[in-house]
Amino acid sequence: MSEIVYLNGEFMPLEKAHIPVLDRGFIFGDGVYEVVPVYSRHPFRLPEHLKRLQHSLDGIRLANPMSDTEWTRLIHDIIARNAGDDQSVYFQVTRGVAKRDHAFPKNTKPTVFMMSNPLVTPAQALVDSGVHCITATDYRWLKCDVKSVSLLGNCLLRQAAVDADAVEAVLFRDGYLTEASASNVFVVKNGVVLAPPKNHLVLPGITYDVVLELAAANGIPLEVREVSEQEVRTADEIWVTSSTKEVLAVATLDERPVGSGKPGPLFRKIHPLYQDFKRKVMRQAA
Ligand code: PMP
């Protein structure tokens, strides 16, 4: 549990943090957020997260309430005020408190909230076995590149996965792979890693970028292009990636084995590369 949180300029214990019921984040889901993994008290890829925050804010036409320098200072401050070397820093900006009206209010101060929780990365057993996933129709809106706090679609899809004892719901829109309810998705076919392009149908994952960079730097064949549902269903390997899941192999999709039903050869290559990369970046930051 987060001990000390930040709300609109002040640090306080979580139980002291309250927002008015007319906050547009509560009323409309009118806000955006970020989640930054922290290893050994160093935020991972922070400039990239702040760039994505700006993209999300631009996407909802909300001015950034802080400069990148101020965000960076605040994030380091919340890390220092909370226990544990590995943390997950969550922060969100909403359009603030105003009389309920769909149209934007004028001169309203955005609400800024930040908390940190212990970072729980996947257990080694899960890395070794791979995870179960289901598939579902991607019925979310058409601005999935905005990291919006309006996550009802994602929540419903993720709950469908949980109801089926699965970790994720892999999503298809019009016959093509988009992403999963809270992760990006990669497919391996005939020794080539296939990644859906970053566009309005997917969240531009920070982990997605790291995986693409590592594949390119290590001679792993890679194609960024649309991936059909058929290609996913006949894939040799499927991976899901996110800041907290890192890279996980999908062992079964809709209860059918993916490839051999175990993490495949390219997963066994990319996973240690990701772990090494993380360690290297953290050593440089220290
Ligand atoms: N897609 C969705 C819908 C997500 O919620 C997430 C996790 N925030 C991701 C992809 C992965 O993004 P990241 O690698 O930045 O955690």
Radius of gyration based on Cα positions: 19 Å
Q: Please summarize the sheet with the most strands.
A: 9 strands, mixed
DSSP summary, beta strand count: 15
Order of helices and strands: EEHEEHHEEHEHEEEEHEHEEEH
* Overall form: globular
Taking the alpha carbons of the first and last residues, their distance comes to 26 Å
Q: Say which molecules are bound, naming each kind only once.
A: 4'-deoxy-4'-aminopyridoxal-5'-phosphate
Q: Structural class per helix/strand content? A: alpha+beta
Helix content: 25-40%
Q: Which band does the percent of strand residues land in?
A: 25-35%
> Can you give the mean pLDDT?
97
Oligomer: single chain
Total number of helices? 8
Low-pLDDT sequence parts = none
